[in-house]
Specification:
With 264 residues, this protein is α/β, with parallel strands linked by helices. 26% of the residues lie in helices and 12% in strands.
């Protein structure tokens, strides 16, 4: 996630993004005592394209490659800028256009203002019935005013789906980036946290929930994309570290009204 709260001056307040100082290189190898080694390739390993290599995208690349998935990662600056991440993880650095090629899952983790600038037909080369994960959040101080969200009342992920021309599953948008590395726990662990997941396509949503559970987190079905306002910035679940019941309670307590920090 990019921020837990922005003031009217644009200053970050209580931001859940933590500097990536000390982010471990060779993550899987260095964490071999606390995390099992990456599994051998099998039928369940997937081809995953990640568009955006910031806090969330970079750490998903680290974890998903460690789990044995075939990851292609891209950013707006070109694959030559991703050589360090590729060396660290074994992911393949590619262009934005190439990231979805043959991918079963595509993660779009870019600032919302950049979504309309993604290439037309971005998903044309993806696998049949590709699942698209949207991690984005609307911060007017960063993204400018987005009329579809402000005037039409679209949820952030509904707006993203409209721009992509493909339905999406909203996940990871309220997750601390460092938690993707540090907070994975086995199923049933008392301190295992849960993440909300919203989407209209039941099969795609199940794919995402299974992936999140593989990453070491429980999940809560947060409804369809029109319900995904319950996990947008400023809601009780945004940035929450809680178990399944805590996440369900927070979703139920959400208000559809945007706070002044999240309107332009």
């Amino acid at each position: 996630m990019s921020s837990l709260g922005l003031t009217h001056s644009g200053k970050v307040r209580n931001s859940p993004i933590r500097p990536e100082v000390g982010t471990p290189r060779r993550y899987a190898q260095q964490h071999s005592r606390s995390h099992p080694p990456p599994p051998s390739k099998g039928e369940q390993d997937m081809k995953i394209g990640i568009i955006g290599a910031g806090n969330i995208g970079g750490n998903l690349t680290r974890r998903l490659t460690a789990l044995g998935h075939d990851v292609q990662v891209a950013n707006s600056r070109g694959p030559q800028t991703l050589s360090a991440l590729a060396e660290e993880t074994g992911a393949t650095p590619v262009t934005v256009e190439e990231a979805p090629r043959d991918a079963e899952i595509v993660v779009v983790t870019v600032p919302l203002k950049a979504v309309p600038d993604l290439p037309s037909g971005l998903l044309d080369g993806a696998a049949d019935r590709v699942t698209v994960i949207d991690t984005g959040n609307y911060y007017p101080q960063r993204d400018g005013r987005i009329a579809g969200i402000e005037d039409e009342g679209l949820t952030e992920s509904r707006w993203t789906a409209r721009n992509l021309g493909h339905t999406v599953v909203k996940a990871f948008n309220g997750t601390y980036a460092q938690d993707i590395l540090d907070r994975a726990r086995p199923a049933g662990a008392p301190d295992r946290i849960a993440l909300p997941v919203a989407g209209d396509d039941a099969a795609a949503k199940q794919v995402v929930r299974a992936l999140i559970e593989e990453l070491g987190f429980d999940t809560v079905d947060a409804g369809g994309l029109d319900d995904s306002w319950r996990q947008q910035p400023g809601t009780p679940v945004y940035g929450l570290r809680a178990d399944v019941e805590g996440v369900r309670k927070a979703l139920a307590e959400a208000s559809p009204e945007r706070g002044p920090d999240f309107t332009a």
